[in-house]
Every structure is written in structure tokens, then in C-alpha cells.
Specification:
Layout: E1 8-13, H1 23-28, E2 36-41, E3 56-59, H2 71-85, E4 90-93, H3 95-105, E5 110-125, H4 127-132, E6 143-153, E7 160-166, E8 169-176, E9 181-184, H5 192-205, H6 208-216, E10 218-219, H7 228-236
Parallel strand pairs: 1-2, 1-3, 3-4, 4-9, 5-10
Antiparallel strand pairs: 5-6, 5-7, 7-8, 8-9
Helix pairs in contact: 2-3
Length: about 240
């Protein structure tokens, strides 16, 4: 008798203040029962010794900037490359979305954005690419998600396929053409009440200049497609 497939999920947790932003909880609550989940806090220097036992990996967001060269960022990028070399499917959001691009294509493809986004935004799918992609095809169109980012990916090489955009983000959802890696600039895992609390928490922690920028780039109308269950299910079905 064939043994049933049991996913083993790795989460690279990049959060700086987990009491404010807890991505492991946000993602893991949507993982099907019977899935083994191991989380590592990269900011504390935690990384798996061997990635080969994992079937899938989630690369989370962070309050940090992807343009930094802190030791934990450099080491986490190396882990992403190791995962890619091993063929482990990866799903990345926000800082994680930027990290997979930096790790796999170089630091020249991430930067501070001139058009940050906070609040709820609409993903506009590329219809042709969405129809071909198992992750994008599993999600609704239109799709509304929570946004919170000062940085972005840019000038993507041909190995990246853009699946969706927003008016302020040219690469809102992407797929790596060389392997099973997906990135979402936004936070589909953050639900409405959490999004408002996260925005308020960040607003209280940043300097006056960033506070003004956050307010000017805030989209307050709550429009959320609650994508995470379908997104996680489709992701864990990828081989």
C-alpha cells in the first residue's frame, strides 16, 4: 500500500517583533492537520541544518529592509538558495518575496520603493499567466489583500514571471521560471483586524518621516479576499 503524502513545512520567520507581527501563527493556522511544521527565527541566527527533509517552505515578511546586509539576512538568503537547489517549493510574502528575488537573482533587483502601500489593495492578474499557474489559478479574480511595504523588487530578469500587479506595485505576484518559487509582495495571510492592528503598531514605532509616508500611502477601505486557505492548499499540492 502506498504511504499517504505528509507535507513537512519549513517556515523561515523573519519577524523582528513577534508580539506585533507573528507570521508563523498567521500562516500555520491554515496548514492542514497532519502537516509537520518547523519554524526558525532567522533574526536569532536559527536556520535548518539540512533542508532536504522538507517538502515545502514559507519565507515570511519582516519589519526589516531587504536592502540591509545584516548577518541574518545574508545567511537567510543563502538558505533560500539551498532550498532552490534542492527543488523545495517556496511561497514568499513581502520581505520574503523580496528575499527570494535577492537570493536567486541578485541584490540589484530590490530597492526602496517610491510608491509604498499600506492597507488593502487589489491584485490585477495577468490573465494568460494566471491560467497557466497552479497557485494563481486557485485564487479569486479580482483579489484583495493587505499591504505593508517600503521596499520592492525591480527590473526583474526574464527568469521571473509577473502574475499580478497593483497600481503602485509592478510585481505584486511573481513566479520563478526555473523552479517552484512564488512571491507575493503583500500579506494575504494578514486578516482585516490584524491588518489594522499591524498598521497602528508600525505607525507608533516609526519616525515622523515614515509615519507621514505611511499615512499618505494608506488605503483604509477594508477589502480582503481571505486568500490564505486556498493559497496554502494550492501551494502544498505542488510537488
Amino acid at each position: 500500500m502506498t504511504k499517504p503524502f505528509r507535507p513537512r513545512l519549513l517556515i523561515l520567520d523573519h519577524s523582528l517583533e513577534p508580539e506585533l507581527y507573528g507570521p508563523v501563527h498567521h500562516w500555520a493556522r491554515h496548514v492542514p492537520a497532519g502537516t509537520d511544521v518547523d519554524a526558525f527565527r532567522t533574526v536569532d541566527g536559527e536556520l535548518p541544518l539540512d533542508v532536504r527533509g522538507y517538502t515545502h517552505a514559507i519565507i515570511t515578511g519582516s519589519e526589516a529592509s531587504i536592502n540591509g546586509d545584516d548577518r541574518w539576512i545574508v545567511d537567510a538568503c543563502e538558505c533560500v538558495r539551498t532550498l532552490a537547489d534542492a527543488g523545495v517549493p517556496m511561497l514568499a510574502s513581502c520581505f520574503g518575496h523580496q528575499m527570494v528575488v535577492r537570493a536567486l537573482s541578485g541584490k540589484g533587483h530590490v530597492r526602496a520603493t517610491a510608491t509604498p502601500e499600506f492597507g488593502w489593495v487589489e491584485l490585477a492578474w495577468d490573465a494568460a499567466e494566471r491560467a497557466k499557474d497552479p497557485i494563481a489559478a486557485a485564487l479569486p479574480s479580482p483579489a484583495f489583500v493587505y499591504a505593508s511595504h517600503f521596499d520592492e523588487v525591480c527590473d526583474l530578469p526574464a527568469e521571473w514571471i509577473t502574475l499580478a500587479t497593483t497600481p503602485r506595485c509592478a510585481h505584486a505576484a511573481i513566479k520563478w521560471a526555473r523552479g517552484p518559487v512564488w512571491g507575493f509582495q503583500h500579506h494575504p495571510e494578514i486578516e482585516p483586524l490584524e491588518g489594522q492592528a499591524l498598521y497602528d503598531g508600525f505607525l507608533a514605532r516609526v519616525d515622523d518621516g515614515r509615519r507621514a509616508l505611511m499615512r499618505s500611502a494608506f488605503f483604509p477601505e477594508v477589502r480582503d479576499s481571505l486568500l490564505t486557505p486556498a493559497l496554502v492548499r494550492a501551494f502544498l499540492e505542488t510537488a
